[in-house]
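Worked example 3 (structure in, sequence out).
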């Protein structure tokens, strides 16, 4: 009897364990199925997020393109409106002359003593070509405000931009390389003029003839530094970094550079803004787009146009970049420098 009871208890405990094991096994399978579904769902969401990011980049690029097109179309519309106003003023001129002639004819009819109205003979109408050209300016009403003359657009090169539409540095433009545009100073007048802006922190490099040997290229670092009431300009050569060329204008630094290289270059007109790179249309366009330029008192905004096809016949390189005072190759085509024979010192034993 005791043996049968023990076997019954043993079988009951085994069946309870198997039931509990099957219960947890079902839960495990259910959890694995849920985890697998979450993994697939997460992968699908990641793919969707990546696709949305790509779409955002495309939309931002399209927005920048449309903004440039809008600015270009608005400029063309302004010029067309100016031409229409001038043509309307010229058309109103013959009508005024006709009205004046009709008035004169009506007033010229005088009654005779016999009661008969004598009408004078009609005079032949004068053609518009017989009008004195000197009197045309007096008949046309002069505008009250003088409109600015239409400026030509400068061609700029397309440069790589980041996702936010900001330029990627360094910007290489031939022998010129720009590393920083700096910050526009709007509260001090000497930091700009009508044509140029001198942002503090601007930094660029340019390849040109060495200070010690004009037959060798040297790398010059150009900087614009905050000098208090007016900016300070520096040109530092990599061959002689301890002696920077300092001035209160880019032309002053450029004159010092040319006279230090060779006395033959004293007659070259200074082009400091071109040497620094702030006069290059591409860099000038970027500086003009910087915050704070609208607060400048004397600066006149320039009009720029991005080159649509870089392989076109129109050369995007400005003519100033081919000047002998800036370009190393043009310098040696224009001037002939004597050869410098360096004396090599023998090592001391």
């Amino acid at each position: 009897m005791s043996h049968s009871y023990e076997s019954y208890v043993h079988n009951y405990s085994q069946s309870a364990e198997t039931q509990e094991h099957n219960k947890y096994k079902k839960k495990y399978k259910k959890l694995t199925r849920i985890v697998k579904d979450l993994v697939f769902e997460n992968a699908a969401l990641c793919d969707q997020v990546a696709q949305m990011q790509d779409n955002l980049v495309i939309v931002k690029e399209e927005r920048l393109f449309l903004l440039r097109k809008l600015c270009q179309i608005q400029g063309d519309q302004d010029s067309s409106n100016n031409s229409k106003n001038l043509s309307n003023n010229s058309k109103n001129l013959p009508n005024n002359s006709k009205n004046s002639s009709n008035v004169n004819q009506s007033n010229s009819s005088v009654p005779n003593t016999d009661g008969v109205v004598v009408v004078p003979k009609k005079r032949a109408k004068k053609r518009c070509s017989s009008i004195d050209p000197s009197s045309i300016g007096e008949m046309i009403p002069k505008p009250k405000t003088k409109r600015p003359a239409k400026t030509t657009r400068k061609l700029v090169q397309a440069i790589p931009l980041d996702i936010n539409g900001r330029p990627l540095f360094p910007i290489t433009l031939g022998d010129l390389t720009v590393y920083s545009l700096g910050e526009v100073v709007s509260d001090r007048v000497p930091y700009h003029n009508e044509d140029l802006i001198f942002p503090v922190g601007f930094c660029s490099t340019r390849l040109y003839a060495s200070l010690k040997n004009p037959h060798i290229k040297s790398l010059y670092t150009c900087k614009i530094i905050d000098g208090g009431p007016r900016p300070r300009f520096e040109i530092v050569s990599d061959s002689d970094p301890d002696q920077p060329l300092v001035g209160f204008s880019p032309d002053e630094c450029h004159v010092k550079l040319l006279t230090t290289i060779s006395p033959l270059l004293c007659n070259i007109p200074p082009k400091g803004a071109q040497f620094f790179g702030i006069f290059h249309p591409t860099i000038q366009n970027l500086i003009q787009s910087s915050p704070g330029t609208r607060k400048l008192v004397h600066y006149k905004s320039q009009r720029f146009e991005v080159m649509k096809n870089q392989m076109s016949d129109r050369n995007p390189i400005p003519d100033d970049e081919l000047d002998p005072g800036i370009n190393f190759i043009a310098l040696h085509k224009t001037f002939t420098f004597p050869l410098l024979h360096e004396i090599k010192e023998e090592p001391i034993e």
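Notes: The helical segments are 2-107, 133-139, 250-261, 272-276, 281-288, 328-334. The chain has two domains: 2-102+128-139, 160-334.
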